[in-house]
Amino acid sequence: MPIPGTIATRDIHVSIAEFNGDSSEGTVTFTNTHFLYDETGNVILAPGAYSAALVSGEATITVPTTDAAGIFPLDRTLRVNLSLDSGWAARYFIEVPTGVGTLELADIPQLLSAGVAPSSAFAQILEDANEYTDAAAALKVNKAGDTMTGPLLVAHNGYNVDLTHDLSIASSTGIAYTNGPLTAASSTSVNIPAGVAVFSHHSFSEQSFSTVNYGPTVVTIDDLSDPLTYFMINEAGAVVQNAGVPTREQRRDYAILGRAVVLGSVISNVQDSPVLAKHPHSFTHDMLSAIGAIRVDGIRATAIASSMTFSLTGGNIFNPGANYQFNEKDPNVSPFNAVTPASFRYVTQSGIVDVTPRTAIDPTIYDVGGVVTAVGGSGAFTTIQRVHCFPTQNVFIQLGQNTYSTLANALDALAVGETLPFTTHPDLRGGGVLTAFIIAQRSTTNLADTTVARVARATRFGDPGGL
Q1: pLDDT band at 10 (very low <50, low <70, confident <90, very high)
Q2: 308 vs 156, 295, 434, 452, 455, CA distance in Å?
Q3: In a domain, 337, yes or no
Q4: Are residues 96 and 183 in the same domain?
Q5: Within 13 Å and on the Cβ side, how many CA atoms surround 131?
Q6: What is the per-residue pLDDT for 127?
Q7: Which terminus of the chain is more solvent-facing, meaning fewer CB atoms within 10 Å of its CB: N or C?
Q8: pTM of the predicted model over 0.90
């Protein structure tokens, strides 16, 4: 394969006698296994081989160097294949430095690869060429499938990875690959499908994995007087029954498969609850999205005296990934800045009311089926408005959807979770945090007057009664 003039080359002299004393005929091949690129990303040399016939065990061949500046990747090597007609063969890798003059192959340090370097030290151990070839074949890893014993260390680009150690730290016991759901086999027994359970040991003194196959099998419930039985797999692959919900400790010792509910000594229903191997990272996001954004700290709403406005203190909001563009080391917690008075937009259950932000609370309106509607009745009629704060510094207030004849009745409803139906606008879920409730009579003109209005803080999860 021709070498472009833009790539530095070097002549290498090969003498098989330097390796095993043989001077028979054969072939030497140097292979560039990389696509080589210039600094602009253009391919300047494709993978290819450079071969020469060995005449009386010797040959000289021109090859590309492996350390020339401005060529990428930087960690390139050449593979050396030596093959004699007598049957002796070897394969290893070398680096070829840029320079002047012919290099002797025997003087170039060998880099161990899938085969074994034919170094003089190794040649002293192996007494003949056949033994050398057999040993090289024995140490070769079969790319179609093989078994390695002992620790596997990978070193590249500054990473030194002990695969068993590091993977054990990242993994957990209790992950399962299952062939189907648990089902009732009879009124007193359960079908356990076939599957594989993973167990990880990551103590200071031991880092290891084990996997066991289990099922399919039918398991009869041991205690039909117990209303709840969980099914677990131990490290031997046996099904273990557990009375009640597994503890946190048990979840680190067993793979939990599911449960059966027993009423009147008969199975009422069977339900899966395994930690599945499929999409474990998405499992975490499923949980976080179900919880929603969380107020980490701060963000307290306070009425401003003699007005219908309020202030917000600074704080932090947990929302996965929302702060990544500002701080890669703290990507999930975003700061919320203090503001006095707070600017906000009103929202109904189906749309945004305000194009331009406002600062004054309007206690005379509420939301009826997504339509902004005037609050009827006497001046004492009251609504509950909900304040949502976002990592973007936006504040949205969702109008109340119910009216109460007095402030006290509204506060009672809020204390028990406002049992009347309430529909949250879908865009308020997930990104922002429900921070406060503004409870105000229709005739309110001073939000700080506690006889007609209250500003109540929400918990971290958006419930009434926060601190």
Answers
A1: very high
A2: 63, 25, 20, 12, 11
A3: yes
A4: no
A5: 8
A6: 38
A7: C
A8: no
